[in-house]
Amino acid sequence: MMDLVVRDVEVVDGSGGPSYRADVGIEGGRITAVVQEAAAAGCLRPVARRVLDAEGLVLSPGFIDMHAHSDLALLRDPDHSAKVAQGVTLEVIGQDGLSYAPVDDRTLAEVRRAITGWNGNGDDIDFGWRSVGEYLDRLDHGFDGEGIAVNAAYLIPQGSVRMLAVGWDDREATPRELDRMRQLVADGMREGAVGMSSGLTYTPGMYAKDSELTELCRVVAEFGGYYCPHHRSYGAGALDAYREMVELTREAGCSLHLAHATMNFGVNKGRGPELLALVDDALAGGADISLDTYPYTPGCTTLVAMLPSWASEGGPEAILARLKDDETAEKIRHHMEVVGADGCHGVPIEWDTIEISGVADAALAEYVGRTVQESADARGEAPWVTARRLLLDDGLGSTILQHVGHEENVRAIMRHRVHTGGSDGILRGDKPHPRAYGTFPQYLGRYVRELGVLGLEECVAHLTSRPAARLRLPDRGLVREGYRADLVLFDPATVAAGSTFEDPRVLPTGIPYVLIDGRFVVEDGRRTDVLAGRAVRGTAP
Questions:
Q1: How far is CA 438 from CA 219, 424, 445, 499, 503, in A?
Q2: What gap in Å lies between CA 313 and CA 495, rounded to an integer?
Q3: Distance (Å, whole) CA 400 – CA 359
Q4: 155 near 196, Cβ under 8 Å?
Q5: Alpha carbon of 103 to those of 174, 199, 282, 350: distances in Å?
Q6: Residue closest to 303 by CA, chosen among 117, 159, 72, 113
Q7: Each residue of 194-236: pLDDT tens digit?
Q8: How far apart are CA 402 and CA 177, in angstroms?
């Protein structure tokens, strides 16, 4: 007697192959039976304590969010419907080179300040951990030992590692400091990380030269992990920045996953195929490469990230001191508006594309939902004056939407055979990017059903088995007997993102059931109180 049978369901199994009708049995958190065309064949059907009639629904593996910023949200919000309601059953966190392990007392305070815009300041979190292993144990414990909303895998953040070993200085690491960074990465991989991330337009990670990154990637490769860089430019010089990562990981013998692999800004309009040609050439040469994207054109980050790197040296307090100094602030403005700061990917900033999506100080809410240019016009002042004031008054905590993407590039890249889905979802702020709440139903509803950019079976493979393969998870990502019962049931005729830029926290429609470890976390379209998520640890080869 099984725990559950999903009866008469159309199975899109994650392999990319044709769908088929089946009964799917679940017991003890795993798929124990997949009986195809059970009703039509008249064969013995699986028997269970509960039978779910799934006529009209599609059953697929749970979706894997390859680029998530839920590092604290998983410990703050047991509901976490922003992801659960999308059918996400696993998130990969520790992204963009900045997160909360490994740390010491000094760097924990620094990283909390540096990424307040991503995750809040963490005043509501008990930071009892310091190592990667301790953080993963904390995720396992979750809420009163019951776990967390979804499963989570972790990338060692290279910027946090450099913060520990070198600090915030723009200089090469000494041999001794490099040895310490190697050890920190090795420790994190042994403790369960699946790879390493970088934020090469964020301080202090951006100060690492390729030789330093190559040495750290060699360590990651020894443990069978992958390197996930937010590389040095997504604007001017984007293709060179992608090529740099391909060559670096080739030298290190390390697998590569290109984070939020977009081609943005006016200089890259229509150039998505050039990126894909670069990837194809590397794949043909034997490289192990994958990438992720979100199905929207605007990006999302923090306002302070737009500053030139020299203005960010020394960390948050040093940034604020430079912004307070009129002469230095004028140099910052010149680099941003005239030269093209590396923080804005080498492109002169266009203030009418920078929309404030959230503020740390609620007293500054008037800025939210307006571009910097609009707020400046309303005040009768230059946009840099407005931006500088906001950076200072909000303690660098403001988040932004950057409206610089191109739809043709989005569509071209999502078709590629190594593409996976990643929301890059920042959950904080008064008006977050709708990708945080809508990425996966947006793929299924808009880009499969409405536009036909991807076929259903192909799209599900992008969101399930491909990321599971990148994460080296042997029992996830497919509907197969013996695999974990992390599953989604959705209506292909109605599934859609509810979130919009105007109302970004609306939950999706058409996803009535989500299971993690064989337990319903969404049932009849409602979030249950089940906390079935755990840390998913990497395993060395």
A1: 35, 11, 10, 6, 11
A2: 46
A3: 9
A4: yes
A5: 20, 17, 35, 36
A6: 117
A7: 999 999 999 999 999 999 999 999 999 999 999 999 999 999 9
A8: 36
